[in-house]
Specification:
Blueprint lengths: L5 H12 L4 E2 L2 H8 L12 E3 L4 H13 L4 E4 L18 E4 L15 E5 L4 H10 L2 E2 L12 H6 L7 H4 L6 E7 L5 E3 L13 H5 L8 E8 L1 E2 L3 E9 L2 H14 L3 E8 H11 L11 E9 L1 H17 L3 E6 L3 H12 L1 H7 L4 E6 L5 H15 L4 E7 L4 E7 L7 H12 L18 H4 L2 H14 L16
Parallel strand pairs: 2-4, 3-4
Antiparallel strand pairs: 1-2, 5-9, 6-10, 7-8, 7-9, 11-13, 11-14, 12-13, 12-16, 15-17, 16-17
The protein binds flavin-adenine dinucleotide, lactic acid and zinc ion (ZN).
């Protein structure tokens, strides 16, 4: 869309949210214009911070009237460039961070309604204080928002137990590109009255609507947690034992893998001591969560699987909450440690479980064939077949390695994004793992809901051929 002169639009936006919430000063805009990795950045006409659904609707309507794109942004922890302005185009960043109310937890039904800009951590705190918990957890919990998590259908560290964000959404309220508000919040657990907005918007990455409220189903809070870090000779053993643990342990909450290179990066960045006396090639972090009565039986089961396994080289078991946090830090701090080493190329892929090991063996060759000096750091949610492929030492604007890795994934019947989404980073590769019919149908939905292309143009869908 061709933007008109910005001034009347800025005045209109100031009239809606107040001048103090229309950020035009470059220093104030800067944190909203660059993504978490530093790889994606652009310039916004303004950053607008509405505080209610009515204000979101009015902002979207004003931008649509002025033919200026709207870029929805929550916590700006996305890793595919979908929530920041793109180079060479103008748009208004609509920040949802002021939509951060967290309603009272309904303790009998285990539900909570929160603003789309509420950070996950705040919702977790509220849920836990009421005897419940959120079924999704991410290392970005202090900043990532519920709206962003629905828009990306976030995964995270508890998918192996509870599934992805979509599974936990009872209902959403959202503003469409014409400024109309759809959805119902609070919603009902069962409501078969046609298409569900939560389903339509999960994974839509800000291209179909701005989510304003989320009604979340909580899970029971489990007070008995056990965390173990296990070292192995190779990733094949990690993958094998991960499958066995899934089949054996009903209390399994997390199954996360990392490798020697990633651990070294984390230790260099954080100063943490080595978890074991020796270094090992591959690591598995296991967390169990259950009720106090079942805890002993479950930890015995874990111990007996580990004892039976010839590949186990060392095991560290957390003795208390602080010990658990120490073991988790080796895994959770991978993303920040990688960022600290340079601007990474981040790929986030899923493989069928039986191709996971083969992928980790082939991907180093794929990267080295293009850039022999690049550093490859793999880690991820092994219980979901999800590997995060991070490559350091590449030109941020050259996607040759990214493309080759995603082609390898496609050739192995995987997906080019497990949980981070497509954003602007992977839209040219979308056709590698979605069919022409899929993309045509997604394009038709986009056109029906946003015919003028107001919401997040350039994200998710490839340019028409
Ligand atoms: P943003 O980054 O602000 O936006 C992401 C996308 O959603 C953009 O396309 C944006 O336009 C859109 N969007 C945001 N809010 C709305 C809204 N209200 N309505 C419509 N569209 C909206 N992701 C995982 O899935 N699993 C992980 O384990 C995980 N771990 C992470 C760890 C770290 C340290 C970091 C930095 C990131 C991690 N992420 C992970 C990625 C990220 O946190 C998730 O994608 C999260 O869902 C993004 O939420 P956000 O509020 O920051 O969204
Ligand atoms: C994680 C992010 C990168 O799993 O998805 O830490
Ligand atoms: Zn992840």
């Amino acid at each position: 869309m061709g933007a008109m002169s910005p001034d009347p639009l800025l005045r209109a936006l100031e009239g809606i949210v107040g001048a103090v919430h229309v950020l035009v000063d470059p220093a104030l805009r800067a944190g909203f214009e660059s993504d978490w990795t530093g790889r994606y950045h652009g310039r916004a006409l303004a950053v607008v911070r509405p505080s209610s659904t009515a204000e979101v609707a009015a902002v979207v309507r004003a931008c649509a009237d002025a033919q200026v794109p709207v870029i929805p942004q929550g916590g700006n922890t996305g890793l595919v460039g979908g929530g920041v302005p793109r180079p060479g185009s103008t748009g208004v960043v609509l920040s949802t961070r002021r939509l951060d109310s967290v309603g009272a937890v309904d303790t009998s039904s285990g539900e909570v309604v929160a603003g789309a800009g509420a950070p996950l951590g705040a919702v977790q705190d509220a849920a836990r204080a009421a005897g419940w918990d959120v079924g999704v957890d991410l290392a970005s919990r202090d900043s990532a928002t519920l709206g962003g998590m629905v828009a990306t259908n976030a995964g995270g560290e508890h998918v192996v137990r509870y599934g992805r964000m979509r599974n936990h959404v009872i209902g959403v309220e959202a503003v469409l590109a014409d400024g109309s508000t759809v959805g119902r919040v609070p919603a009902l657990r069962k409501d078969a009255t046609g298409i569900e907005w939560a389903g339509v918007l999960a994974g839509s990455e800000g291209t179909l609507a701005v989510i304003t409220q989320v009604h979340l189903a909580l899970v029971a809070r489990l007070d008995a947690h056990a965390v173990a870090l296990v070292a192995f000779d190779d990733f094949a053993s990690v993958a094998r034992i991960a499958g066995e643990l899934r089949a054996t342990l009903p209390s399994l909450l997390a199954l996360e893998a990392f490798f020697a290179g990633g651990l070294r990066r984390v230790r260099d960045h954080t100063g943490l001591p080595s978890p074991f006396a020796d270094d090992w090639p591959a690591y598995l972090l296991v967390e169990l969560a259950t009720s106090a009565e079942d805890a002993a039986r479950e930890t015995e089961r874990l111990a007996s699987v580990l004892d039976r396994h010839s590949g186990v080289r060392a095991t560290a078991v957390a003795e208390d909450e602080a010990g658990a946090a120490r073991l988790w830090a080796y895994r959770d701090r991978h993303t920040e440690a990688i960022n600290a080493a340079g601007v990474p190329h981040k790929l986030d892929v899923t493989l069928p479980h039986d191709r996971l090991v083969e992928f980790t063996e082939r991907v180093p060759g794929t990267v080295a064939a293009i850039e022999p000096d690049a550093e490859l750091v793999l880690f991820g949610h092994v219980g979901d077949g999800n590997i995060h492929v991070n490559v350091l030492g590449l030109d941020p604007d050259d996607a040759t390695v990214d493309h080759a890795v995603l082609q390898l994934v496609a050739s192995m019947h995987g997906s080019i994004s497990a949980e981070h989404g497509i954003g602007i980073a992977k839209r040219r590769e979308l056709a590698l793992t979605r069919t022409d019919a899929d993309i045509a149908a997604m394009r038709a939905i986009k056109h029906a809901l946003d015919p003028e292309g107001v919401l997040n143009p350039g994200v998710l869908l490839p340019d028409p051929r």
